[in-house]
Specification:
GMP Synthetase, Chain A, domain 3
């Protein structure tokens, strides 16, 4: 068993909390020392009460799924002796009403684009298998009910 922590800090200051006129900007500190500005999404709480430049929970959720998938993909590719030079992902999450009528992240689509080098390059089938295995192993994907999809960007591999 392992534990992971995040410390979230928000302070009112002189803002009109009871009148609803307060900033949702806050600080997220992670166990490794990284600090990230957080906020509600401007889609949920209008500006200026939200900070569009900060990371909102929905973006963090999408990034968490994308990052976990990538880390598993890289580990599996290295084990199979495929040399990855670059991995990018243009992941997108969709907020909509779920089956219970509640707003939820209902679909997250990963769009990984992987560039390989060397003499051993994966076929399209091997690339699909690598992504499938990464998805099956991803701790975050295994932890959520959201439909997580993977749509790799293909090129001649």
């Amino acid at each position: 068993m392992a534990e992971f922590t995040a410390d979230i800090t928000w302070e009112r200051g002189a803002q009109d909390f009871l009148g609803g006129r307060y900033s949702r900007r806050h600080l997220m500190r992670f166990d490794g020392g990284a600090e990230v500005a957080g906020s509600s999404s401007p889609h949920a709480v209008p500006l200026p009460m939200s900070d569009a430049a900060a990371v909102d929970p929905e973006e963090a959720f999408v990034a968490s799924l994308s990052s976990c998938h990538m880390l598993w993909f890289l580990a599996i590719a290295a084990k199979r002796k495929f040399c990855v030079d670059r991995y990018t992902d243009a992941a997108v999450g969709v907020m909509a009403k779920n089956e219970q009528g509640k707003m939820a992240m209902t679909v997250v689509t990963l769009r990984p684009n992987v560039i390989f080098s060397g003499e051993r390059l994966p076929t399209r089938e091997e690339l699909d298998r690598l992504h499938h295995e990464a998805h099956e192993e991803c701790f975050i994907a295994n932890s959520v009910r959201t439909d997580v999809r993977c749509e790799p960007v293909y090129r001649d591999v």
